[in-house]
Amino acid sequence: MSNLPEGWTDDMNIAVPPGHTLDEVVDYVLEGTIRRDSAVIMIQHLKAAFGLSQSDAELALDRVCGGVVRAATGRATNCPAEDKDPLAFVSYQKCLKKPALITAIYPQFAKSRKPWWRRLLS
Fold first, then answer.
1. N vs C: which end of the chain shows fewer Cβ within 10 Å?
2. CA–CA separation, 70 vs 89, rounded Å?
3. Which of 66, 113, 87 is nearest to 11 (CA)?
4. Separation between Cα atoms, residue 102 and residue 25, nearest integer Å
């Protein structure tokens, strides 16, 4: 039994055509987001280069950025479910391994190198 309204799903999988991988989709969205490409441009590219449908391209953009935000919290409990939200999961994992991705996309989430108490003394 689910608490979701009828017709809704918590499955955020997309259909990646043969010859492409989720990692490639995530890498493209992360790189495009760092470059500050517009959502329209990235969606068009995901459709043309990766063969995604309009709705899958939009979902890919949303879920990859969702993984970045979840990784920025630094909490393991925020890890997306790999089977239900694979794009966010891959994005989350990449951002944990390379925190500079988080900083490049969301500078406000950058981790300070100084402990909080040293920042007060500065």
1. N
2. 9
3. 87
4. 17
For the stretch 101-120, pLDDT in tens is 999 998 887 765 555 555 55
Distance CA 59, CA 16 (A): 12
Tell me how far apart the 2 most distant CA atoms of the chain are, in Å: 56
Question: How many Å apart are CA 46 and CA 37, to the nearest integer?
Answer: 12
Query: Which of 11, 34, 3 is CA-nearest to residue 88?
Result: 11
Rounded to two decimals, the pTM is 0.82
**Could you give the CA distance from residue 90 to residue 5 in angstroms, rounded to a whole number?**
27
Helix H segments across the chain?
Answer: 22-35, 39-50, 54-72, 86-97, 100-105, 116-121
Write the pLDDT tens digit of every residue in 13-64.
888 999 999 999 999 999 999 999 999 999 999 999 999 999 999 999 999 9
Please, are residues 50 and 18 in contact by the beta-carbon 8 Å criterion?
no
Structure tokens at 94: 């990449």
